[in-house]
Amino acid sequence: MATDQTDRPAGDGPVLVTGATGYIGGLLVPELLRRGRTVRVLSRSADRIAELDWGDAVEVAEGDASDADDVAAALEGVDVAYYLLHSMAGGDDFEERDRELARTFATAAAQQGVRRLVYLGGLHPDGELSPHLASRVEVGKILLDSGVPTAVLQAGVVLGDGSASFDMLRYLTERLPVVVAPRWLRNRIQPIAADDVVHYLAEAADLPADLNRTFDVGGPDVLTYAEMMERFAALTDLGPRYIATVPVLTPELASLWVGLVTPVDSGVARPLVGSLIHDAVRSEEDLDDLVPPPPGGAAGFDEAVRRATRDMHLSLSAQGARLGAGAIGAAVSLGSAATAPARGVLRRLRS
């Protein structure tokens, strides 16, 4: 039986975090605990949660997000629920998988009388989107249509040690001092520090009860991906980067290229590249009028990179290996003027 959200006072009941073992979820949980929240996590493995630094400070609902009964049990008595699930891997059915997971969660949240849902999606322009970005937009709409007031926060590149998008930026910059690359390196991006994403997510729990909408979040700087590579190199003393772009390189081939010259798996690179073929810039700043800013203000790109690399050992291997990777990147990109030749280049390089 559905519970009326108005029956439960704001802040009464635990906060549920899905995706708690992921990058953002793993940062959000300790922040919520720091703010005095009672936190429950949905996980397939209670033992895995117990191994985490904050594992003994949370309630664990052991179950699968695809199982309606498990999700309903996890949401019982919950005040605010964070939905931080999406497919980073590909597969022909990822859109349907994400759609069904979101529908299961939205239905259970409404039935259990959850007061608010919070979801992290991606910044995007109007119009046709890459499949992965379109799927994230669809998931946000499913939650917004759930009948439970929902805040969909939309972010671009997240800058933090452990973020997949930051790892891709880091390794491309480290390993490609000279690169002829896809033209999306010239698209405009408004990156955001991981700490600031977590701040806005935590604050979203206490938004006015009648708000049910998307909010764009981002840092103060708008840069191209090429500019981010150049500034990352300068901040980490890697030396100047020489970047040229070519007009043709499909997201599929670009993800294979990323997987070839960096440790980022091509399956993970595909949705990351797909999100970069569009400009990713805030179209509104309404959330800034509703919640306080991060302590000290939103971090700019330089400060976010300094935080992310403070304890990081940069992969400064032999210069020859780095130059070799740059040559591979240039060869793959230049070979991309036609799809078949580019695939041939990739096959030869992998053999």
TrEMBL record:
InterPro entries: ComplexI_NDUFA9_subunit, NAD(P)-bd_dom, NAD(P)-bd_dom_sf. Residues 19-128 form the NAD(P)-binding domain. One of its GO terms (molecular function) is protein-containing complex binding. It holds the Pfam family NAD_binding_10. The lineage of its organism: Bacteria, Bacillati, Actinomycetota, Actinomycetes, Micrococcales. This is Uncharacterized protein YbjT (DUF2867 family).
